[in-house]
Amino acid sequence: MSKIVHIEIPAPDLEKAKEFYSRVFSWKVEVTPEMDYAMWSAGEDAVGGGFSKSAKPATDGVLLHIGVDDIETKLREIEAAGGKTLTPKTKISDEWGYYAEFLDVFGNKLGLWSEK
Fold this sequence. Notes:
By secondary structure, the chain is α/β, with parallel strands linked by helices. The protein is built from two helices and eight strands. It has two domains: about 1-55, 2,3-Dihydroxybiphenyl 1,2-Dioxygenase, domain 1 (Roll); about 60-115, Roll (2,3-Dihydroxybiphenyl 1,2-Dioxygenase, domain 1).
């Protein structure tokens, strides 16, 4: 079985990425200045990844969705931390739950997903 094991998110400012993602999603972020890179972990049961200074923020292409308990609360936290809501909480179906889309502090487009 194949599974996703690492996700990179463009982040021109690693300390700013650490502040935003730690504050909003409680991710553990370790910055390695000499490598212009930072590793992040979303917890034991989740995929981890890195923040790359060399990659350019994007709104097109693959869209990463982050699972949360309450989309509306998380969107308020995202905006308070400098992000922007693009698509508010939207129902997919009774079976598949809800999603929303936002821009992080660098202009990367990401999504949220929740059962409720």
